[in-house]
Amino acid sequence: MNFFRKTDSVSDKNLIVVDSKNIDLEKLGLEGNSLAFVQKKIDADETQILVNLYDRFLFIIIDEAKDDYKRNETLRKAGASFASTAKSEKMETVAIQGLNGRKESILAVAEGLALASYKFDKYFTKDLDKIQFTLKNIELFDKDINDTDLNELNAIVDATILARNLVNEPLSYLNAVQFAMDIKKYGDNEAGYKTKILNKAKIEELGMGGLLAVNKGSIDPPTFSILSYSPENAKNEKPIVLVGKGIVYDTGGLSLKPTAGSMDEMKSDMGGGAAVFGAMYAISRAKLPIKVIGLIPATDNRPDGNAYTPGDVVKMHNGMTVEVLNTDAEGRMILADAISYAKEFDPEIIIDLATLTGAAHAAIGTQGVVAMGNADRKYMDALHKAGNNTYERIAEFPFWDEYFEQMKSDIADMKNIGGKLAGAITAGKFLEKFTEYPFIHIDIAGPAFIPADDAYRTKGGTGVGVRLMYDFVKNYKA
Ligand code: BES
Ligand code: MN
Ligand code: ZN
After folding, report:
1. What ligand has the least distance to the C-alpha of 358?
2. Catalytic: which of 56, 257, 315, 343?
3. Residue ranges in the chain whose pLDDT is less than 70
4. Annotation marks residue 245 as catalytic
5. Distance, CA 282 to ligand 2 centroid (Å)?
6. Tens digits of per-residue pLDDT, 183-236?
7. Which of 164, 216, 285, 332 is flagged as catalytic?
């Protein structure tokens, strides 16, 4: 999608107008029957009114909600609801005009419309005219919108869509090597972060036993991508380090997932890695003045003659040993090495994003992300704020030390699974052991991949975590 700022006339364009109930309908060129039609709906307190003017469409959004974080979400959803009309009418350009003097409203409508106009269509060979969205340009008519707003919107929307594309890509395209190469390509060509890809030899040299253990059953080598963004005007001394789970496919390994349905969506098990990639893309393309590092360990997890087995003991990057009792608890094995490796950067804070547990999904469904951590309260408060701003809301779980009792092993420093209860938290407590730095763990297993469209969150990969982390970094106070 391309966003533009415009000041010419809107009178001959497909137009979305945002205003209060006192909107001047005559000034919009409405008269006769259409004027009466719209006025009646406004009087009946409708807030989204679609008018077919035959030579064009007019979509009126009444924006009078209380000014809290839900207001922008209502507007994103209103924007999203126009996407199907834009598609069926084969629109390539839509204008959005703000008449109530609140530029955030226009930006939110534009964001919702753009994110809803998405379909992963790469593999269709037929009927593309019915499948593809036609919308390419969104013109913003609002005198308060500046270059920074525009760049930011372009960066966030592109980043979210690129992250969705990667999540939607099957393993037949996106193995660990391809994932790393795509990450590097977007950094080099579009966004501006630098990428260093560690290959298997380097991963061995560094002793990343967790990543290597999960990779043992794979026919493809693992990768470890290091994304760095360090602007000259950075306000922070120590970087924020983001870590993303990059399991490009999770069969469960020898602890194979039961066939009926549970494996079908597991191409999305690199959703955390995609979120870290997308956040780094948006942050560097929008040139936020904050140093950030992204770490993405990647491999698939599958059974094979050489696969790691329940009972194996693995020596991790930080020297600790882990008894593997379930090869399907593989995410924590690769994340632990990355979280340990993060000390190379002397981070201010480490935040990981991962499709880590079915328990997190079961606990809150798809309406938010699960988060927990040991970092100073100000970080978690800031994360909640980012969650509300972006509507990728935070369900904060307890992080009491007693939960780690479940992870104690008879023969090694810890095991990789806990008991029946609190599975999302015991996974987080496992990860915590691999760093001395302030740590927040975000489990996105619920919302990373959704079974049906939900306004501007489209079916399949959602790109959850991209907007959340962008907003967190943007509002970060060093
Ligand atoms: N990738 C899965 C978690 C998952 C489940 C993500 C459903 C998205 C939707 C993860 O690797 C996994 O298999 N977790 C196990 C851990 C268990 C073996 C301790 C789980 O949650 O069942
Ligand atoms: Mn698994
Ligand atoms: Zn997994």
Report:
1. 1
2. 257
3. none
4. no
5. 29
6. 999 999 999 999 999 999 999 999 999 999 999 999 999 999 999 999 999 999
7. 332
Task: Assess whether 164 carries a catalytic annotation.
Answer: no
3-state SS, the chain, equals CEEEECCCCCCCCCEEEEECCCCCCCCCCCCHHHHHHHHHHHHCCCCEEEEECCCCEEEEEECCCCCCHHHHHHHHHHHHCCHHHHHHCCCCEEEEEECCCCHHHHHHHHHHHHHHCCCCCCCCCCCHHHHCCCCCEEEEECCCCCHHHHHHHHHHHHHHHHHHHHHHCCCCCCCHHHHHHHHHHHHHHHHCCEEEEECHHHHHHCCCHHHHHHHCCCCCCCEEEEEEECCCCCCCCCCEEEEECEEEEECCCCCCCCCCCCCCCHHHHHHHHHHHHHHHHHHHHCCCCCCEEEEEEEEEECCCCCCCCCCCEEECCCCCEEECCCCCCCHHHHHHHHHHHHHHHCCCEEEEEECCCHHHHHHHCCCCEEEEECCCHHHHHHHHHHHHHHCCCEEECCCCHHHHHHHCCCCCCEECCCCCCCHHHHHHHHHHCCCCCCEEEEECCCCCEECCCECCECCEECCCCHHHHHHHHHCCCC
Distance 248 CA to ligand 2 centre (A): 11
Q: Residue 255 C-alpha to ligand 2 middle, in angstroms?
A: 9
Which residues have C-beta atoms less than 6 Å from ligand 1?
250, 269, 326, 328-331, 355-359, 361, 417, 423, 445
Instruction: Please tell me the predicted confidence (pLDDT) of residue 220.
Output: 98
